[in-house]
Amino acid sequence: MSGVDRRPRVAVDVAGADLGPEPVVAGALAAAATTDVVLVGPRERIRPLLPGGVPPPGVRLLDAPDVVGMADDPVAATYAKRRSSLLLAAAEVAAGRADAMVTPGNTGAAVLAAAARLGRVPGVTNPALATVLPVPDAGPTVLLDIGATATAQPEWLVEFAVLGAEYARCRLGVEQPRIGLLSNGHESVKGGPVRRDAHLLLAATPGYVGQIEAYDVLGGRVDVAVTDGFTGDVALKMYERTLDATVGLALAAVRAFSPIGALARDRERRVTATVRRGLAAEAGGALLGVRGVCVVCHGAAGAADVAAGVDIAVECVRSGVVTRTGVAFAASSRRRRVVRRVAVDG
Amino acid sequence: MSGVDRRPRVAVDVAGADLGPEPVVAGALAAAATTDVVLVGPRERIRPLLPGGVPPPGVRLLDAPDVVGMADDPVAATYAKRRSSLLLAAAEVAAGRADAMVTPGNTGAAVLAAAARLGRVPGVTNPALATVLPVPDAGPTVLLDIGATATAQPEWLVEFAVLGAEYARCRLGVEQPRIGLLSNGHESVKGGPVRRDAHLLLAATPGYVGQIEAYDVLGGRVDVAVTDGFTGDVALKMYERTLDATVGLALAAVRAFSPIGALARDRERRVTATVRRGLAAEAGGALLGVRGVCVVCHGAAGAADVAAGVDIAVECVRSGVVTRTGVAFAASSRRRRVVRRVAVDG
Description:
The relative contact order of chain A is 0.16. The first copy, chain A, has helices at residues 21-31, 43-46, 74-80, 85-94, 107-118, 154-172, 192-202, 214-217, 229-256, 261-279, 303-318, 321-345; strands at 9-13, 36-41, 59-63, 100-103, 128-133, 141-144, 179-182, 208-212, 224-226, 284-288, 293-297. Chain A is α/β, with parallel strands linked by helices. Chain A has an eleven-stranded mixed sheet with strand order 3-2-1-4-11-10-5-6-9-7-8, with helices on both faces. In chain A, helix 6 (154-172) runs antiparallel to helix 12 (321-345). Chain A has twelve helices and eleven strands. The first copy, chain A, folds into two domains: 1-124 and 289-346, Rossmann fold; 130-282, Isopropylmalate Dehydrogenase (3-Layer(aba) Sandwich). At the A-B interface, helix 8, helix 9 and helix 10 of A face helix 8, helix 9 and helix 10 of B. Chains A, B: One of its GO terms (molecular function) is phosphate:acyl-[acyl carrier protein] acyltransferase activity. Chains A, B: Its EC number is 2.3.1.274. Chains A, B: InterPro entries: FA_synthesis, Phospholipid_synth_PlsX-like.
């Protein structure tokens, strides 16, 4: 729909979130002010949450009786639950009835559903989830993969670099993103065999600056930090938990010299707002490498997070992430074929 | 020296730190108020940093002409630089002329030097570096490995659990530490093949509570968080960088409603002190699984960090970490032999 002058349409998976369907429906209805929304989930659980039991204007209800829970094995659930909200939401996008899908459900199952119904961008072995972390006094950083994969081969990390660079172009407006490979040191001997091999392969990727440490993810040295989904999950959760803990302690310190009750509360609000606005990670990760827009929110996403996830999806649609990753991938595949040929012939 | 009534003796590696020998010598001299110190490094670089060019009482100088830098390959440096401060400091401990060593140098080379000169605790395949993270509103958490290894086999993670539990007993005084395996989810299907296997093996380890997420490392759910050195390095650096960034933003928010210059600065100091006291990671990691105490500080450790590293080393000596890990390991090896026999016979 890039360039088309109409409201974007987003399919929202209402089943399988940690906090039940209530905050998801509330967030989707809030997003419906500017976006057409398809609520996908068990009809009888969604209806009671709609005003008067009826979808308001701009909102459509799509019954999906099968629910994939957080504890479900993604592969088994994808094969057994054919009418899950995940597979039906992805099918809406595949059929062109929605421009994007948003889910706070089981991440592994969401990735499989998107890959199954939307297909992968040609040349992509594994799709990757990307998020945007703000960096004080510098531009934000794209971090990927944050959980679509559990381990990674060197070649996948190269693919993630291409996907992440395109995401940085679309979301951050950075023309030539600087790409770093998350490792345990800057030296090329670091990182174990998978990262050492990826480091060598990445030399052919435009914008690659080398191995980086976790410090650099928030350090303004790179626009894209590439890692496997296991390490990305740990890094992101460590980030979020440390942020929470630090805000809590900063508030305690502020309280220590705030004399009056109401004034103290006002100050606390301002400190919290400043820090969170400055540092909070985005409410959802974009699944890159599939032929459609899919945003995965936290399992415990609140209504505001779901609405923010819809905003991310709309921005991905408007900036044409899918088309652009396809083009970038075709170029990258050509480059790698040349590199391989040179390596073989040389 | 556990139980011996004399000043502890700590060998401090003065070469190879990021900031040069100055802060290391300054920190070691500060520690010499309560601890006998051996300064190990190139004599001509240390002498000018001593008052009057002579070691003060309680301080000894040990010339080590070979310097291992941060960019040196640990294996190559260990074999080529036989008179490095790392190998000589470890030899002091091995010969009983020092009770512990402290180094802000190349981590990989420090691990190899300690393993080579001190030997490993029988049953330990790989030593691990452990740090203590404070957790607001709960007891602190031991996190290991934070960088002695780059990858891990399932069996090594089980060894790390035994080492970490003993460290928690010695340093935190927790009698029966709760142990978690750092993963990307609580479900046993998560974490990839290495962690899934480790999860099964860990079932026989007393105190094991299952797979945990990075959230839980600071969540008061466990006393020991076990992971490979690559993931531990990323988690710790993400933690430290997020803490710094959050403190910076919290200060900006405090400044926004602090009217007077001097008062503002006083408030800033108080916020920073409260947050850092509450959340700062320890200045050094203890190398567990070798037959001697070795503490590795940050490469960019300041004088206060080096002195704090000496304090950690002294606490490890006093609590008898080495003896206790040896005993724990002997017990754990017996247990695993039984488990293996049951598995084979059953």
